[in-house]
């Protein structure tokens, strides 16, 4: 594992750390070092499967696999969920071509500089702390077709979990207890392991929370890395 500590998310031009994680969708381990010198890779570092927004982000990244491979780019999803729990979930909710790894300790999130946000009553020091007063005053989440209308972030998360029929296990509860505020990010690395593009929840004081890059933005970046 990398022991690198950073003050914020890695930026274009930074060298990505090596992380070695237990694979979920195949046997053995997955190491970022294995891709260096060979192929670019899109690394998605998500909260656990207990997060309904991340379940959707994971599915969206999996759907890009064919287009990315067409440009010579691999794709890796990392989830803050124990491997056994994640394997069980994907057994019943398979995503074709998904390459995923488990990181219950969020070692990779830390190595890539993604903060674990602390929720407070009224103290905000973004991206380390956010008060519930600030969180509730943020623009509502609008997901046509998923939500009945714009909703506050906590209410939207609860609604989506109920809609999905997602049943929290003890493993999910452990991950949520320590990582509900873990901010997520996607990092596109070139074949030498250098970050060339990122999307994270960190910028804009929380307005990006639960958001995702557009298909056009991500594939445009992929085209630049592949060229």
TrEMBL record:
One of its GO terms (molecular function) is antioxidant activity. Residues 10-227 form the Thioredoxin domain. InterPro entries: AhpC/TSA, Thioredoxin-like_sf, Thioredoxin_domain. This is Peroxiredoxin. The lineage of its organism: Bacteria, Pseudomonadati, Pseudomonadota, Alphaproteobacteria, Hyphomicrobiales.
């Amino acid at each position: 594992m990398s022991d690198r500590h950073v003050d914020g998310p890695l930026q274009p031009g930074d060298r990505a750390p090596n992380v070695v994680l237990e694979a979920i969708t195949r046997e053995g381990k997955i190491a970022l070092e294995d891709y260096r010198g060979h192929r670019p890779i899109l690394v998605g570092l998500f909260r656990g499967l207990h997060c309904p927004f991340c379940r959707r982000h994971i599915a969206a990244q999996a759907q890009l696999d064919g287009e990315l491979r067409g440009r010579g780019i691999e794709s890796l999803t990392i989830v803050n969920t124990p491997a056994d729990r994640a394997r069980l979930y994907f057994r019943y909710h398979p995503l074709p071509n998904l390459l995923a790894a488990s990181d219950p300790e969020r070692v990779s999130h830390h190595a890539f500089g993604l903060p674990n946000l602390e929720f407070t009553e009224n103290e905000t020091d973004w991206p380390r702390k956010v008060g519930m007063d600030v969180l509730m005053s943020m623009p509502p989440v609008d997901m046509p077709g998923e939500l009945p209308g714009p909703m506050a972030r906590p209410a939207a998360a609860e609604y989506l979990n109920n809609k999905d029929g997602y049943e929290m296990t003890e493993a999910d509860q452990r991950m949520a207890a320590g990582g509900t505020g873990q901010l997520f990010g996607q990092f596109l690395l070139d074949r030498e392991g250098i970050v060339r593009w990122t999307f994270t929840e960190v910028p804009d004081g929380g307005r990006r929370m639960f958001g995702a890059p557009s298909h056009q933005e991500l594939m445009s970046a992929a085209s630049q890395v592949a060229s």
